[in-house]
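To: structure subgroup
Subject: Chain for Friday's discussion

All,

I'm putting the inputs and outputs inline so they're searchable in the archive.
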Amino acid sequence: MGEIDDNNPALFVSLPRQLNNNIQLRALLEKNSHELVSHHDLYATLLAIAKSSHQWNDQNWDIFWPSLQQKPELPSFYGSSILHTLKQPRSCPALRIPFEYCQCLKVMTDIKPSKSALNLQANELPAKLIDYILQASVAHMNADIAEHDLLSKCALLRPDPEKKSLLQQFEVRTNMSVDTFRITFDTQPGDGKFSAVLQIQLAVEKSIKKQLEMAKKTLFFISDPFPRLNSHKYQSKCAESAAKVQPYCYCNKTSWFFS
């Protein structure tokens, strides 16, 4: 499952013995197992168990919760019990699932750097713009380290000059004036590998100067924090008190000694 499982841990449901022979419930669970669900649905499920499980048996099953005769227990946007009929539509926006954590398959195009801003192909952006996104991503990480008062313990990060970053553009847009990208890159020290989802508005004018000016005004990181794609083991032990930025941290030599 890889990246999908990293952001959306797998869920296993085991019915108690008294409900295991309820044919309606088992059929409903089988159907719902193919649907998109969120933490809001899990909350609604636990609430349903707490409020109504004393009425359940292995013979009959009300496919709706609350039943059509009962007053709703939750506002409409708070999810549905996975033991009952799920409300539709089951899309990420409807379920309030953040873009980065959406399990729906996203089509992405690898973006290639171009030395010129003129006559760009659909899968090209100016190399200077791609480099700006890379530098801004690493600067954002360093700012997070500083915000957590860890500059005395963690080394400042820089892009790894020996490895190329990968910029990918999502074909599905949440706003027609904004483009959504994912950048995957390596940092030093520490051989860190990270990815970040970001949005940026591309300038109508194709000059590199205008593109950079627009990027500086509109760049927004959806990812917070950036997920680390490789292990950091003990190199970030000195930042255990800051779970958000610990994967970023490469402990200074003095921190290695005293942590």
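Points worth raising on Friday:
The chain is about 25% helix and 15% strand.
The longest strand covers residues 179-188.

D.
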